[in-house]
Design goal:
The protein has helices at about 1-10, 10-35, 40-45, 60-65, 65-70, 80-85, 120-125, 135-140, 150-160, 210-215, 230-245, 255-295, 300-305, 310-350, 365-390, 395, and strands spanning about 55, 90-100, 110-115, 145-150, 165-175, 180-190, 205, 220-225, 250-255. By secondary structure, it is of the alpha+beta class. It is about 55% helix and about 15% strand. The protein contains 16 helices and nine strands. The chain has a six-stranded mixed β-barrel with strand order 2-3-7-4-6-5. Strand 5 (about 165-175) and strand 6 form a beta hairpin. It has two domains: about 1-45 and about 260-395, no CATH class; about 60-75 and about 90-225, no CATH class.
Length: about 400
């Protein structure tokens, strides 16, 4: 009762301490919720939807050669595909085809690419269209209709605002020459519906049959290789051995991406903990100030309580109770508000950017934070009371 009365009499000061603890907790718990909800494996799988290995032309090769130049002597040969088909645990090889283009009429080389899609991709494309839009592969092929998969990128990169039915003229580079071709826009996809399928949807898309009619060279850009679960390690060694004689190509594995993302997430957690610790210093200083001031300014009050029969143990229990009420109130608010904000952030990111997110409350970090704050409060309170008790009761009454 005495502890509650003191808190009520000094509610403004304790409210400030509770607020500082709550803000620190909200930052820590809210952002930790997002990081705890990111699985390195799920994050990596969003870029490996169709297999555990991606084989593509090296970046340094493309920096020195245009895509159309590489396609005239395309390293993705039939022999390579046949060899890959024989690796351990092979399930499927998915091909990606790029047709080099430019929106600039006088361009000497490509600065963009049209991505090919097959009949097997029609269900995915249909799911990303506006309501009422019906896509048919044969009609798109016969009419050389192009699909705009990422209209925002088209407007940003090529300064073209896409609308279904309008035409777009591109300079096509097929490896031997460049020529202009006018395409009708068959559909403009809704980017918000793409989800985890970004590897198959790009800015400009054309039926593969139509692309083959336009190009005189092999337009293969990438292989994605899927093998049986448990065969990844052996398959990776075999792929690396196959690529030793093809310096233009490189391989990225799901396992390597998982390891890289785990390091990234761990680094982000370290940054978060550092930022929370920095901000938490102000909360701790405020807490220490509240506890010490409450004890120092009340020495005479405590001495009077002792003189009318209150024991040191009872007095210590009362002061600790005051401190714990303040701290626990701040911690409860931190957990509730921080958890709610973390859930809201995860829901927003899941809809907009990271469809692989699954909300998880950061129990470990929350427990560690609560234990550190409560233990710190008890230690500070105990040290302050111990220092005060060095003085006799008469000395305390005369202070």
């Amino acid at each position: 009762m005495l502890a509650k009365k003191h808190l009520a009499d000094n509610r403004k000061k304790h409210a400030l301490t509770i607020t500082s603890l709550t803000l620190t907790g909200i930052l820590l718990i809210g952002l930790s919720s997002v990081l705890s909800s990111i699985s390195a494996e799920e994050m990596s799988r969003s870029g490996f939807q169709r297999g555990q290995f991606i084989i593509q032309i090296r970046d340094e090769v493309l920096r020195n050669n245009s895509l159309e130049q590489m396609q005239t002597v395309n390293p993705f040969t039939k022999d390579l595909k046949d060899s890959l088909s024989g690796i351990t645990g092979m399930e499927a090889i998915t091909e990606y085809h790029y047709l080099p283009v430019s929106a600039e009429p006088g361009a000497e080389e490509s600065d963009a690419a049209v991505v090919g899609f097959g009949r097997e991709d029609m269900d995915l494309l249909q799911s990303c269209t506006a309501e009422g839009t019906l896509l048919e592969y044969d009609i798109l092929t016969a009419n050389d209709q192009i699909i705009i998969g990422r209209p925002d990128d088209l407007e940003k990169d090529l300064h073209i605002q896409a609308k279904t039915g309008q035409t777009i003229t591109l300079k096509v580079f097929d490896g031997t020459a460049g020529y202009h071709r006018t395409f009708e826009i068959g559909a403009v996809l809704d980017q918000s519906k793409i989800g985890n399928h970004g590897d198959k949807i790009d800015m400009l898309m054309l039926p593969l049959d139509a692309m083959n009619d336009l190009a005189s060279c092999d337009t293969t850009w990438q292989y994605t290789v899927r093998v049986l679960d448990g065969a990844e390690a052996q398959a990776e060694r075999e792929i690396e051995q196959l690529l030793q004689n093809i310096p233009e190509l490189s391989m990225t594995s799901l396992s390597a991406a998982v390891a890289q993302n785990e390091n990234f997430i761990q680094g982000m957690k370290t940054v978060l903990m550092t930022a929370a610790a920095f901000i938490g210093c102000f909360a701790v200083m405020n807490l220490v100030n509240t506890i010490l001031t409450g004890i120092i300014t009340r020495q005479k009050e405590f001495a009077l309580m002792r003189s009318v029969g209150m024991s040191r143990k009872q007095l210590s229990a009362m002061v600790r109770c005051e401190s714990l009420i303040t701290v626990i109130t701040g911690l409860i608010l931190s957990l509730i508000i921080g958890g709610a904000i973390g859930n809201i952030l995860c829901s927003f990111l899941k809809k907009r950017l990271m469809s692989y997110l699954t909300y998880q409350f950061p129990i470990g970090i929350a427990v560690l934070y609560c234990v550190c704050v409560v233990c710190g409060t008890l230690v500070i309170t105990g040290a302050a009371l111990g220092y005060q008790n060095r003085a006799s009761l008469i000395e305390q009454l005369h202070r």
